[in-house]
UniProtKB/TrEMBL annotation:
This is Iron-sulfur cluster carrier protein. HAMAP family: Mrp_NBP35 (MF_02040). The keyword Secreted does not apply. ATP binds at residues 130-137. Binds and transfers iron-sulfur (Fe-S) clusters to target apoproteins. Can hydrolyze ATP. The lineage of its organism: Bacteria, Pseudomonadati, Pseudomonadota, Alphaproteobacteria, Hyphomicrobiales. GO terms for molecular function: ATP binding. It comes from Methylocystis rosea. Coiled coil: none annotated. Residues 79-112 are annotated as: Disordered. Gene3D superfamilies: P-loop containing nucleotide triphosphate hydrolases. Belongs to the Mrp/NBP35 ATP-binding proteins family.
Amino acid sequence: MATEADILKALEGLYGPGGAPLAGAVSGVNLSGAKAFVSLAGDPSQTQAWEAARGAAERAIKATPGVEQAIVTLTAERASRPEAPAPRAQAHAHGHAHAHAPGPGATPPQQKAGIPALEKIRFIIAVASGKGGVGKSTTSANLALGLAAQGWRVGLLDADVYGPSMPRLFGLTGKPKVEGGKLAPLEAYGVKIMSMGFLVDENVPMVWRGPMVSQAISQMLGEVAWGELDALVIDMPPGTGDVQLTIAQQVPLAGAVIVSTPQDLALIDARRAVSMFQKVEAPILGVIENMSYFLCPHCGGRSEIFAHGGARHDAEQMGVPFLGEAPLDIKIRQTSDAGSPVVGAEPDSPQAAVYLNLAAKVKTLLETQKTRAAPKIVVG
Ligand SMILES: Nc1ncnc2c1ncn2[C@@H]1O[C@H](COP(=O)(O)OP(=O)(O)OP(=O)(O)O)[C@@H](O)[C@H]1O
């Protein structure tokens, strides 16, 4: 079996766009059996040149004795330059970037024929939001746990390559092992979890651009040993950019769940997310209003901070189901921040009951839904 040193040696004589040795740009090496997963940190403003370097690195690593398959992905270098990130990425409040809708002339990612790694999964659900920070990852995690609590075998894929949340939400730090040539997901509360955060150094900011993101997502979809699952919950990055399109096009989604807060701006973006899924003909399972109202932990009083009910109203207007609401609640935040989402940590709490109810609705919708959407290419 090749070692990390062999991988670095394979990169000797190769240089990045700035003329620096490629070995110095390695931000993560994950080796097991004959497979090498390597990440390179590059300058996001030089995507094309880095893409060439990535290809060269992949070829060199693949030629290393003991390596049969090499997968090299690009992350952004750790530099904290003041200039704006890549043109189609927008800096996000907590330091990572999110892609937005491809502009005119952007090439949509190519459709892939069925992804074998996903074939034994009964239902694949995308949890999406139009806007960052609305609680999409918290909802994905608790929804996945809620589905597992009803006896389903559940996987959770953190597709937010810009700011992976699942390592933090589940307090997971280990690196995935390779089993049968595929990455084995980590596990928490019986749910299988995979995140780009497990594969690269957590300090490497992931400011990626379109083609790299699509490629990384394809790998995350195709190279993970999910095994047989009743449901795979995909925590999407916020927005309606390349990753969302890649997934919507490549994955036979059983449905999408859209998370929004009741605020007008979040709702406008949520509408955009709904219409993106409708455009690729992925069924919308429904909308969840998160941080819908505030329950005071001291007096039990209810305050509707963001004019609660906007998401229900919008869902009705768009003709998609409204699944329910989750309160803005300190226990939901504390359990998530402590690495153990509320449905796992306190399954009998009223806060967990909210998600268990939402999960039960999603499960019923999936089981009674007639068709499963096929992947579809949308141009323009
Ligand atoms: N219902 C809730 N009550 C209290 N806190 C919440 C709730 N939902 C989410 N949060 C908190 O809000 C913050 C953002 O949530 P989360 O990371 O789930 O959002 P996101 O939409 O996935 O964000 P990102 O844009 O980073 O992907 C977290 O600190 C989380 O614990």
